[in-house]
Amino acid sequence: MPRHKFEFDPPETDFLLFGICSQSKDYRLVWIINKIFCLRFIRTDDIVTAESNRFALFAFEDEVTRVKYFFAANKSEGNVFVKELKQMDYFLIIEGNYESVDSEKLLSQLKQSDSV
Hints:
The chain is an alpha+beta fold. It is about 20% helix and about 30% strand.
């Protein structure tokens, strides 16, 4: 019987990723980011890993610019979501039409915050 080989190439998703170090609680940092960038993050379902660890996730989609923003916790109750980046406390992920976002300006404004 002949063998059939199936190949699967996952779709490439381009995005911007910012690692954030902060001792602030996730909801406090999201409030600050909302205020600085005029966004409206809302809490969504937590990220749940195979080990049943839960990590906070916030999302906002700008329908005008077609940019999706996600704010995710990297640490929760002593567990780390992305072990290769364990020094990061949070991630800010921007996808969709992310080219319309001025990443240099965003980064400099984040750094000016007392909480980051």
